[in-house]
Design brief:
The complex is a heterodimer of chains A (305) and B (312). By secondary structure, chain A is of the alpha/beta class. Helices cover 27% and strands 17% of the residues of chain A. Chain A is globular, with a radius of gyration of 21 Å. Chain B has one domain: Thiamin diphosphate (ThDP)-binding fold, Pyr/PP domains (Rossmann fold, 3-Layer(aba) Sandwich), CATH 3.40.50.970. Chain B has an 8-stranded mixed sheet, with helices on both faces. With 312 residues, chain B is α/β, with parallel strands linked by helices. The chains are: A alpha/beta (305), B alpha/beta (312). Chains A and B meet through helix 7 and helix 8 of A and helix 1 and helix 8 of B.
Chain lengths: 305, 312
């Protein structure tokens, strides 16, 4: 059995990528299984999805604790403990990271074992689709290549899965073309040991029963959500062109997260540690004084502390 | 003609933040935009009673975005929770254990799934008992936190996870949006208002006006939802603006049952609003569903006809 775990942020297409891989494996004649983790389905929040395929019936269910391949759709997840990207990664695991950085740089930054591989999938998507979130087919293609699947079942799987989502045929075709480019850009990585690794059971920690009279979870701190930084959600950051700003306050008023403050001179100051990059301020600025800039330094300008 | 008295200029909106960042709510959340503006009037001396929904993420253990208190309830029981909190505060004040000056406002936060559906009976009870509280419904027209399933707030022809477009139902949702404003109004609470965060002064003014009343103060906040309505998060204010300008989301208030429209839009054709959102894309592609669009337009026109007649 080959086990693939996808990590992404809600809206990036990790779930669809896992479905594309599962369908491609099924069309290649394998027994296949794919499922996303159930949770709050929210844009930007860490999500995971799992694909298993093999020649024998698959008895294992649930989360993949010991993956053969891990696909990371967003490099900022590597440093987010809540995403649990590093779970079960050994030096045998193939770790694919969507980043324009070199694999060695990711290795130094993340200190993860595993055989790391990178490709700037978001850059490719922006170049070909002009959209930041359309990367499910491309991730599925990379995963299919790394897992050793052929092109034709992959093409069909993309058509099927995107078709189910109601994507228009010409856009599906473009996805197929660009996905195959991504497929060609990475190399098959064989598993190092030819022998099937012994199946290791997922370890679950059984919760201890607590009587309700002991009370419920309480937060006694006040307004401590600021300790949790959400800057890593951004693909684009709002940047102020100071001489165009007329100090109208609209960016401050419309920011849902309240991360824009107006300074003494009525100029906006963006809290980049928390700005989620929704671009409302960029859209609403009447004088175009706020512009969207692509996050740099390998796709993530922000790093978790 | 309705006039704003407290909030006349955008720079009168308080600078201080009462809902702090770091939440796991979606980037570009229209509901959070509304709550953040409302909290600028409500302040920090508030107990939020939160029905399960997207706003659960505002205080997901161990982090909270509020400087004040927050109580979590099931989807059906937030107004009952508010009653308990209000009663406890009243008892403490009566016994002299809490000075009157330290009293706090009780504010229910509920999504449309909770408000229009599961908590309808407990809301009716709280309205009937004239509970002194605020109720803020962040209406994104579907069960958003679980992946956009149909709710009674979903408008006709919107595509949701459980009302997809199909051969039998090419226009997707066949039901009409429930008129919760009128259901509330039938109970005659002292204050009801609809708000849209794209109209921040209108929103702030209504929260100031509501503060003068004792009893239920009900708010219905348009919460444009990039995730569920399928548009770019940066367009949240634009979507909210078009909802109001097409007449689909009337801005109004009802004081002791008497309705006043606080803004009379020139009413752009509804296509302008529908076209912006992926949840209505099937009305335009691959073929234009003229009947469905006309049906939506006719409903809007029928709503506004008596209002504009009254104005004239």
């Amino acid at each position: 059995m080959y086990a693939v775990r996808f990590h992404g942020r809600g809206g990036q297409g990790a779930k669809t990528a896992s479905r594309i891989l599962g369908t491609a494996a099924f069309l290649s004649g394998y027994v296949a299984q794919d499922s996303p983790i159930y949770g709050a389905e929210r844009r930007g929040a860490p999500v995971a999805a799992f694909t298993r395929f093999g020649r024998e019936p698959i008895r294992e269910r649930g989360v993949i604790a010991y993956p053969d391949l891990v696909v990371v759709a967003d490099a900022s997840l590597l440093e987010d403990p809540a995403a649990r990207v590093s779970d079960g990664i050994t030096d045998q695991t193939i770790l694919f990271v969507n980043s324009p950085l070199h694999a060695e740089q990711i290795r130094t930054q993340s200190k993860l074992p595993g055989r790391i591989m990178t490709l700037g999938v978001t850059e490719i998507a922006l170049q070909h689709f002009g959209q930041r979130e359309a990367i499910s087919a491309l991730l599925g293609a990379v995963a299919a290549r790394l897992a050793g699947l052929q092109q034709e079942p992959l093409r069909q799987a993309i058509a099927r899965e995107l078709g189910d989502l109601g994507v228009a045929p010409p856009i599906i075709e473009r996805n197929q073309t660009v996905a195959l480019m991504c497929y060609e850009s990475v190399q098959v990585m064989a598993r190092e040991s030819a022998a099937e690794p012994a199946t290791r059971a997922t370890i679950f920690h059984t919760p201890v029963y607590e009587s309700p009279c002991r009370g419920t979870a309480r937060i006694s701190a006040s307004g401590n959500s600021v300790l949790r930084e959400t800057g890593g959600w951004r693909t684009f950051r709002p940047v102020l062109v100071a001489d165009k700003c007329n100090g109208c306050w609209l960016c401050f008023v419309y920011c849902p997260d309240g991360v824009i403050a107006m300074n003494q001179d009525d100029r906006p100051v963006v809290d980049y540690a928390h700005c989620k990059g929704c671009q409302i301020c960029v859209h609403e600025c009447p004088t175009h004084a706020l512009v969207a800039e692509r996050e740099q330094e390998g796709g993530v300008a922000w790093t978790a502390k | 003609m309705w006039q704003r008295e407290t909030f006349k200029k955008i720079k009168q909106i308080p600078r201080e933040e009462h809902v702090l960042p770091g939440t796991a709510l979606c980037a570009g959340c229209g509901g959070l935009e509304a709550l953040r503006l409302a909290a600028k009037v409500l302040g920090d001396h508030v107990v939020y009673v939160n029905a399960a929904g997207c706003f659960t993420m505002l205080a997901a253990y161990p982090y909270t975005s509020f400087k004040g208190s927050w109580l979590y309830t099931t989807m059906g029981s937030a107004p009952a929770g508010a009653q308990g909190v209000r009663d406890a505060l009243d008892v403490l004040i009566a016994k002299g254990r809490l000075p009157k000056s330290e009293d706090v406002k009780v504010v229910v936060l509920g999504g449309d799934g909770s408000t229009y559906d599961m908590a309808l009976s407990s809301t009716s009870g709280a309205l009937h008992r004239k509970l002194d509280f605020y109720y803020i419904c962040y209406d994104n027209e579907a069960y958003g936190n679980t992946g956009m399933q149909l709710s009674p707030a979903t408008p006709y022809a919107a595509r949701t996870a459980t009302s997809p477009c199909s051969v039998q139902h090419p226009a997707a949702t066949t039901q009409e949006k429930k008129d919760i404003f009128e259901i509330w109004r039938a109970h005659r609470p002292p204050y009801i208002a609809t708000v849209a965060p794209r109209y921040p002064l209108d929103l702030e003014e209504k929260f100031v006006r509501a503060a003068a009343f004792t009893g239920p103060k009900m708010f219905l906040a348009l919460s444009a939802c990039p995730t569920g309505w399928v548009y770019d998060p940066g367009e949240t204010p634009e979507v909210a603006k078009l909802a109001v300008e097409t007449g689909l989301w009337p801005l109004k208030e009802a004081i002791n049952g008497v309705v006043t429209h606080t803004y009379i839009p020139k009413r752009k054709p509804v296509e302008a609003y529908l076209k912006l959102q992926g949840r209505f894309r099937h009305l335009f592609e691959p073929t234009v569903q003229t009947d469905a669009i006309r049906h939506i337009q006719e409903r809007v026109d029928a709503y506004w006809q008596p209002v504009t007649k009254e104005q004239a």
